[in-house]
Amino acid sequence: MAKLDAESDPLWQDLDWAIGQMLIMGWDGTEVTPQIRTLIEQHHLGSILLTAKNLKSAQQTARLVQELQTIAHNAGHPYPLLIALDQENGGVNSLYDDDYICQFPSSMGQAAAGSAELAYKIAKATAAEVSAVGVNLLLGPVLDVLTNARYQPLGVRAVGDDPQEVSQYAIAAINGYKDAGVATCGKHFPSYGNLNFLGSNLDIPIITQTLEELSLTALVPFRNAIATGRLDAMFVGGCAIANPSMSVNHACLSDQVVDDLLRNDLGFQGVAISECLEMEGLRTEMGVKTGTVMAVEAGCDLILLCRAYDVQLEAIAGLKLGVENELLTRARIHTSLRRVLRMKKACTSWEKALNPPGIGLLSQLHPSHLDLSLRAYDDSIAVIRDTEKLLPLTGSMHQEEELLLLTPLVKPLPASSMTKALLEAKNSRSDPHTLHDRWLHRDRSAIMSGEGVFRELGRSLARTRHGKLLHTSYTANGVRPVHENLINRASCIIIVTADANRNLYQAGFTKHVAMMCSLLRASGQKKSLIVVAVSSPYDFAMDKSIGTYICTFDFTEAAMAALVRVLCGVVKPQGTLPGTLRKSRKAAKSRQHWLVEAYDRDRDARGLDDLLQALARGSAPVSRFLRFTTAHSFELDTPRIEEAHFVVRNSSTQALYGFCATYFMPDAGTGAIGALFVDPAKRNVAIGRSLQRRALRALTQRRGIKKLQLGMSFPGIFPGIPTSADDSGTSLKAWFAHGGWDLAFPRRIANLGLSSLPSWTAPEGLLQSIQRAGISFDLVQGPEHAESVLAHVAAHAACVGVGVAATRQEVLELYRHVMLREGGTCAVVRAKAVAPPAAESHEETVLGTVIISKPGSPLAAYLPALQGASAAEREAGAGGDGDGDGDEAAVGGIVAPVVAPSATPPATLVLQGLALLGLRQNKAHKARRSVLTWVQNDACEPLVAMGLEVVGGFEEFTNSPDAV
C-alpha cells in the first residue's frame, strides 16, 4: 500500500484521482451495474454507500462488496473503497438476513433497557456482522437530541431528549463499533432533533434555535463524542438554520456550520460527509454542480450522491469546474484527501477488503448474537403504567375470554423478514404491465408489510395465551361498525399505535375506543384496554386516562415477539422511558432500598474494575480518566488514614452495582467520601442513596469525628463535585443537597494544564523577579530529606492559596508517600529563603514545596488527572496527526503545591517559582504535557499568566457530622 504522501501516488498527482476520493455514491440494484463500474474505474470513485435496495442477504452482500473491491483493485486504486452502511438497528437496517444478521433494538429502545454496557455489546455485535461482509464504515451513531421529541420524525432513531444520556449511549456505541474494527460517523450535525417543517417537498427543514441554545442541548453529544477521539467522520445535514446569529439555507454547504462550528468551535479533525446533494430542494435552488463546489468550500471532505448516475456525473464535472474557476485549490482538495485516506488506513486494507470472512464468521457469531438480541429486546419493553393491573394477561383474563387486537396500517420496514418475503413473492409473480398496475402493487406491498408484522403478532399472542384472539386494522376512517361489533365481543382490547403524535387519526381512534370501553364498563361489562406504542413512546406517555400503556420502541418481528412475552407473563418488563420522562418517575423509584456490604478486596476487586470501565466507556469526557483507574487506586494502605469502602452488588453474579470509598483521618478528626459510583445501567433506583447513607453512618460513628468532607485529594479520583460546563455538576450538587449536605460554602480548586510543553518558554522577567526576591530552589527525595518537607506541609497545608484540600492529614500523607515510598519516579521541589547576613542564623527557611512526578509514575494510579489527555487534546497537541505517539504516557505532574503565607517574598511569586521549576523538571523528563493539580481559584491567575490553562474545576465541601 502506498504511503499517504508518496510522490508517485496518483491520488496526489492526478486531480481526477483526488476528486474521485472525495465522493461517496450509491446506486439501485443488487448487482454491479455498468454505471457504478464506470464510476470506480474511470472516475476513481473511492467510497460506496450501500442501502437496502442493494442487499438481499449476507452472502450476496459479501460477494457484492468483494466484487466492488476487486474492480477498484484492478483499476489501480491505491487504497480500498470505503463501504458505508446505515445499520442503526430498530427499524433502520439496510442489511437483513434472518439466518446470519441479528436484529437489535433501536437507539431509544437500548436506552430504555437502561444499560450503556448492553448498548456497547450491541454496537460491537452489529459492527462485527457488517464487517464480516466487507463493510468498513457504519453511518452512526445518531447523536441528535430530541429537544422537541413529540413531533420529530427522527423518533426512536435517537436516544432521547437528555443530552447527557444521548452522550452516554452514543459513546458506548462508538466504542463498540471501533472495538470491532469499523469506522464511525456521527449524525446528523448540527441537529435533526428539533426541526420545523414547512410542508412543501421543496422546503428544507429549519433549525430555529440560537447557537447558545444549541450549545446547551443539541451540541452536547457531538462535543462529547468528538472528545473521545474515536469518531472518524461526521455527517452534516442538509437542514437550514434561521436564527439571529446565523442564516443558512443548507448546513452542509455552509462554512459557518462545517469549518467554523464543527471544526473550529468543537475541534473535529475527522472526515465531514455531506448530506445527499440529490435532495430536491438543493437541486432546484442552485443545481448539483454549484452545490458540490459549495460543500467542499464549506469544509466537507466526502460528498454524498445516492443513486442518480446523471447527477453523479454532474457532481464530478462540478468539482473539476470549481478547480478551473479557482474556487477550489489543490491544497483544499489535498486537505480532504488527507482526512479520507487517514480514515481508510485506520479501518481497512487490501487484504481485508478482498477477503471478507463472510458466512463462515457470521455462522460462529450468530448464536451469541441471538442471545444478546433476545435479552436486549426483553429488557427494552417498557410498561409505563398498569394502574388496573391488567398485566400479565394470564392473570387478568380467563382463557375462554376473547382478546381484540386493533392495529394501524404502517409503512414497511426497509429490511425485515416480512418485507423480504413480500418482495420475493412479488418477484415470483409476473411484473405488472401498466403504470396503474405498478402503482397498485407497490402500494399494496407496503400495506401488507406493515399488516403482516401485526398479523404475526396476533397469531403469536393467541398461541402463547392459548386463547381466542380477534384482529383487525384501523385507518383514518375512524371507528367503523366492524370495530364496534368486535369491541362489544371482547373482554380486553389491545390498540397498537405508531407515532400517533404525527398520525393524529391514531390518537383520535384510541381516545374514541377508550371512551367506549369506559361507558361499557360503567354498564357492568368487562372491557379492559391496553395501548401499545410500537414506535415513539410519546404517543400517550403523559395521558393518564390510558391506564395500561406499553412501549416497544420499534415494530420489528423481534420487538413484537418480546411484547408477547411481556403480555403473557413470560418476561417481567424492565424498560423505562427515555430522558426527562424517566427522571419524572425518579421519586417513585427512590423509595427502594439496597443491601450495602463492606468492600472485600479478594471478592470485589474484579467487579470494581468492571464497574469503572463501564463508567468510563459510557460517560462524558469529564469522567474520561476513569479508564485509567483501578480498584488499587482507592487503597492507600497507610495506618494514618483508615479506609472503609462499601458496595452494592449482585451476590449471584458478583457484579458491582455501586461503590463508595470512605476515609477517616484521626489526627484531623475528618471523615471523607472519596468516591461514589453507580453503574449507569442501575441509576435512578436509589443505589447511590443507599451507599451514601451507609457511608455517612459509618463515618459519623468514628471516635473523634469533628467534620465530614465531600471530596478527597489523596487519592484524587473524586476531588469534589466537578464544575463542568454542562449541567452534570449542578445535578450532582442537587443530589448531594437532597442527601443532607450543606453546599453553601465550597472550597473551589482547579487542575491546570500545559498542552505543548516542549515549545513552552517562561514569561519574560519571571526568573529575574524570583532571583531578586531571594528565593532559591532544590530538588530532594528520599527519607533523609523528609523531616523538613513534612514539617513544612504539616504547618502550612491548610493555608489560603495553597490549592490542596483543607485537611492537613491527607496532604501530609501524600507527601509522606512520595518521600518515603515512591522511589525514583517522584521528588519534591523546595522553595527556600536565605536569612540576610546580619541575621543571627543563616539557616534557610522553607517557603513552599511541590511534588514532581515523572511520566508514567506509579503515583498516577492514585491521581487520574496525571494519566493523560483527551484524544482531542492529544490531536491538537501532536499537530493533528491523531496517531497518539505515546502522548498518554508523556504527562508530567506538578502536584499539591504548599506555600507558606508571606508578604516578603510574595506567596504568589513562590507559587510561580515552584510551577516554573516543575515545568522544567517535566521538560527534562521528556513529558509532552504538564498537569498542575489542586490549585485554589484565587491562586490560578498568576499560573494562567505563565501559560497554563484551567482544565477542570471542583468544589469540595465540609459539614458538621450532626448536619448530614
TrEMBL record:
Source species, domain of life: Eukaryota
Domain Glycoside hydrolase family 3 N-terminal: 16-342
Keyword Glycoprotein: yes
InterPro entries in alphabetical order: Acyl_CoA_acyltransferase, GH, Glyco_hydro_3_C_sf, Glyco_hydro_3_N, Glyco_hydro_3_N_sf, NagZ_Beta-hexosaminidase
Keywords: Glycoprotein, Glycosidase, Hydrolase
Keyword field contains Hydrolase: yes
Annotated family: Belongs to the glycosyl hydrolase 3 family.
Protein name: Glycoside hydrolase family 3 N-terminal domain-containing protein
Organism of this sequence: Remersonia thermophila
